[in-house]
Amino acid sequence: MMGTSTQVQPLLINYKTLEEFKRFKEYGIQELTMLEDLQGNIVENNSESPFFGIYIGNALVARMSLYRVSAKYDHYFEPPQDYLELWKLEVLKDYQGQGYGKQLVDFAKSFELPIKTNPRVNSHNFWERMGFQKATYKVERDLGENPLLWLPQGVEEQNDKEE
Amino acid sequence: MMGTSTQVQPLLINYKTLEEFKRFKEYGIQELTMLEDLQGNIVENNSESPFFGIYIGNALVARMSLYRVSAKYDHYFEPPQDYLELWKLEVLKDYQGQGYGKQLVDFAKSFELPIKTNPRVNSHNFWERMGFQKATYKVERDLGENPLLWLPQGVEEQNDKEE
Fold first, then answer.
1. Domain around A79
2. Is residue B163 included in any domain, yes or no?
3. pLDDT > 90 in chain A, percent
């Protein structure tokens, strides 16, 4: 460990973070919007973001986004309840295979809420190891998604196949 | 053209189609579910699917999914209205650059409804050429998506930034 911190921490919106985000493959409209909002003074420097990450020394090596979805929009879990949407989980290539992905997922699980994610197809093995299961695909709800769910004790998948 | 048909056609769920789907990169839980439903006699052979495609001779070379979302779930367009969600637009590598992607998008536009898609980040140039524009990113609505919109005449983006 050599004294480096590998805690999961919330990421603040600032130019350094946004520059580091460019190293991640899943850089998209979300990040571009954060940059524009910062440049246009629509948000303050060091505003909160939905991102959490792991630093090694000064460098961001892994990140994810987390958002708490309200029970009234819950179409996945039984009983319906607040749940976490997790996206853009990514570990930079040179740091893969060292447990940082698991560390981020464990952090998300620590809120003790159900979790939904919509991973890239080729990461299903990882999500299975993390205890996630495929949701029953419903075209009108899931459209182009590949939803995977993590169910804490006492929570089941909603099973009304028809809607 | 040599007599081959390059019309866009609705794709029916059968073993031949589902086998052809495996050649597309964006093969996921949606297709696996269609296969399981067919194997388990939950759907009949040649049931309708949300997919449309282009054949050259006997081979499926391009496809997309389209779903009509009801106005009551419209959080993108002003006035709120039925719109089309478009996903998994993909042309097989050997057939790219020949206008099949545009042909599929033009087919979607022919319904004269607004269209929303959530493309892979590296296809934004294509979508811009097709007349799509970035939606204003809203974390609580868009989460991990990169929404792009096509607005027919008289339709605007919903502009209530706060919700």
1. 8-154
2. no
3. 88
CATH assignment of the domain containing A124: 3.40.630.30
Q: Are B135 and A29 in contact (CB < 8 Å)?
A: yes
Q: How far apart are CA B135 and CA B113, in angstroms?
A: 16
Whole-model pTM: value is 0.90
Residue B159 domain-assigned?
A: no
- Interface pTM (ipTM) of the complex? 0.88
Q: Chain A residues with CB inside 8 Å of B146's CB?
A: 28-30
Domain-embedded: residue A66: yes
Number of H helices and E strands in chain B, helices first, is 5, 9
The DSSP secondary-structure symbol of B93 reads G
CB contact under 8 A, B137 and A67: no
Residue A88 lies in a domain: yes
Burial status of residue B88 (CB atoms within 10 A of its CB: 0-12, 13-18, 19 or more) = buried
Look at chain A and report how many structural domains it folds into. 1
Cβ contact B50–A135 (<8 Å): no
